[in-house]
Amino acid sequence: MNDTSAALSATDREHSLILAIETSCDETSVAVIRDGKEVLSNMVSSQIDVHRRFGGVVPEIASRKHVETITIMIEQAVEEAGIKLDELHAIAVTQGPGLVGALIVGIMAAKSLSLALGIPIIGTHHIAGHIYANRLVTELQYPCMALVVSGGHTEIVYMEAEGSFQLVGRTRDDAVGEAYDKVARAIGLPYPGGPHVDRLAMEASKAVELPRSWLGPDSYDFSFSGLKSAVLNALNQSKMKGEELDHGELARGFQESVIDVLVEKSMRAVKEYGAKQLLLCGGVAANKGLRAALTARSEAEGVELVIPPFQYCTDNAAMIGAAAHLKWKQGAFNALDFNVHPSFSLEKWMNPIMESKSE
C-alpha cells in the first residue's frame, strides 16, 4: 500500500472508490463502487449456457472460463465507470465461500492489480456481499435481519450493528437453490431450475399438497431434503398408477411449502430480535413467488422489507464492493499472501474488528 492510500484511508474512511471482483462460482463479474453504495459499473459474464448441458456447474470448466474472461471484464468495468485505474483506492475480491479454482482466478487478478497500483486489497465474504447488496438500494437500519437464500446457502443472519453478523438459522441439508434445481431436474426442466419452477408455480391454479419441515417450534434452521423426496414420491406414485401428474401443480405445491417456511421463520426472527428491517438476499431473492409472499406478510406485520433489484440478487461484483467498504472504513486490509477460503465463516469475517472496537 502506498503512502497516498494510507493517508486517505486514515483521514477519509467514509469515501472510497473500489474495484471489486467476484468469481466464486459461474459468473465472472467486475464492478466499480463509490462509497459502498453508488454503482459506477457492474459487468457480469454468465456461464449458464456452458454448464446447462451438464445439468449443473462443472468447477474445472468454471475456472477456465474465469481465466478467459477476467481481464476483459476488468477493462470493461473501468471504461464503463469512466475512471482511471490510478483513481482507485482499493481492490476488493471474493475470498470465499465458493469453488476453490474459481476463487483463485479472482484473487490472483486482484493481487496483480493491488501490487501494480500500490493500493490495498480487501478479501471479502461472498454472503456479506449478498447482504450488503441491499445497501445499494437504501441505507440499512440496525438492528436488522437478513434472509439469505441462494444455490448454496439458506440462512437467517442477525446484524445488531454495521458489520456484525450472528447466524441465527441455517440449512441442515439442501439449500433452497439446490432443492429447486433438483425438483426442476425431476420434472424435466432445464438448468438452472429455479426460474422455471417459479414460472410454473405462478401459472398453476392448484397445488399438490406437500409437507412443511418446521424442525420444532423454536428452530430457525431449515431442511429441504425431505420436501425434495416428497416431490419424487409424488412423481413415482403417479407413474405407478398410470396417472399424469400436472407439473405446474407440483411446482406450485413445492414452492408454497418452501415459501411458507422461509417467510414464517424469518418473520418470527424479526419479532424475537426486534429487527427494524428484513433484508432479502441471494440468488433465490429473484424468485417472484417469494418476493410477493414476503412483501405481503411484511406489510401485514408492519415490517420494513428491503429487496435488491434482480441484477443484484444473483452473484455480482457490485455487492462485493458494497461489503468491502466496511473493511475499508476500518482500515482492515489483507496482506498479499492471503489465500482463498472456500468455507469462510461469515461471523468471523468482520466480527474480530467489531470485538477489537469494543475492548
In brief:
This protein is 47% helix and 17% strand.
Layout: helices, strands, pairs:
Elements: H1 3-11, E1 17-22, E2 27-34, E3 38-46, H2 48-52, H3 59-81, E4 90-96, H4 100-117, E5 121-125, H5 126-132, E6 144-149, E7 154-159, E8 166-170, H6 176-186, H7 194-203, H8 225-240, H9 247-273, E9 277-281, H10 288-301, E10 304-306, H11 317-330, H12 346-358
Parallel strand pairs: 1-4, 4-5, 6-9, 9-10
Antiparallel strand pairs: 1-2, 2-3, 6-7, 7-8
Helix pairs in contact: 3-4, 5-11, 6-8, 7-9, 8-9, 9-10
What does this protein structure show overall?
The chain is α/β, with parallel strands linked by helices. Helices cover about 45% and strands about 15% of the residues. It has twelve helices and ten strands. The protein has helices at about 5-10, 50, 60-80, 100-115, 125-130, 175-185, 195-205, 225-240, 245-275, 290-300, 315-330, 345-359; strands at about 15-20, 25-35, 40-45, 90-95, 120-125, 145-150, 155-160, 165-170, 275-280, 305. The chain has a five-stranded mixed β-sheet with strand order 3-2-1-4-5, sandwiched between helices. It has a five-stranded mixed β-sheet with strand order 8-7-6-9-10, with helices on both faces. The two termini are about 25 Å apart. Residues about 1-10 and about 355-359 have low confidence and may be disordered.
Number of strands: 10
Q: If you compute it from the alpha carbons, what radius of gyration comes out, rounded to the nearest whole angstrom?
A: 21 Å
Secondary-structure element order, as H and E?
HEEEHHEHEHEEEHHHHEHEHH
Number of helices: 12
- β content, as a range? 15-25%
Distance between the termini: 27 Å
What's the average pLDDT? 92
Strand order of the largest sheet: 3-2-1-4-5
* Helix percentage: 40-55%
